[in-house]
Amino acid sequence: MKHSTTPQTRRGHRGPARRIGRSLALVLPVVLVLSGTLAVTRVNWSGDPHDSVLAATDVSTAADGKNAAPRTPQDVLRDQLLTELQAKDPGVALTHLQQAVDERPSLAKHCVSIARALGRAAVRVYGPSRAQSFARPVCDTSFASGVLAARG
């Protein structure tokens, strides 16, 4: 009897992590290409700020009372995007978040928290599975982590 010197592998036993990994390996490049294409088509190439889809320069107060603190640009932007998420869909809100950060680089440090808030809101409005379908690489993967946090 002859014995093989190569180790035997268990065939036919593939766990769910491997299946998920393979699915992501197939789907993720497509999502990245499509989201990049959509982002490029939505950029204001004219340079005219009046053509901007979303402006985050409104620093009005939350209430008319004298004790209300002025709202920061990131708070105004977050509230606008959350409203837009409910009126349209998370994809539109994420596109506008990317545009706002591109137009005002000072908002970049708030991008992660805004994207996570959008992810949590998307789960409340659309449910976890549908909310995850809107994920794209805006502010790294913060939207997806917001969706994941709202699931559990």
Secondary-structure map with pairings?
Elements: H1 16-42, H2 73-87, H3 90-103, H4 111-126, H5 128-132, H6 142-151
Helix pairs in contact: 2-3, 2-4, 3-4, 4-6
Description of the structure:
The chain is an all-alpha fold. 57% of the residues lie in helices and 0% in strands. Helix 2 runs antiparallel to helix 3, helix 2 packs parallel to helix 4 and helix 4 packs across helix 6 (142-151). The termini are far apart.
DSSP summary, beta strand count: 0
Task: Give the N-terminus to C-terminus distance in angstroms.
Answer: 55 Å
Mean pLDDT: 74
- Tell me about the biggest sheet? none
Overall shape: elongated
Provide the β-strand percentage band: under 5%
- The run of helices and strands is HHHHHH
Q: Which class of secondary structure composition applies to the elements? A: mainly alpha
Low-confidence blocks of residues: 50-64
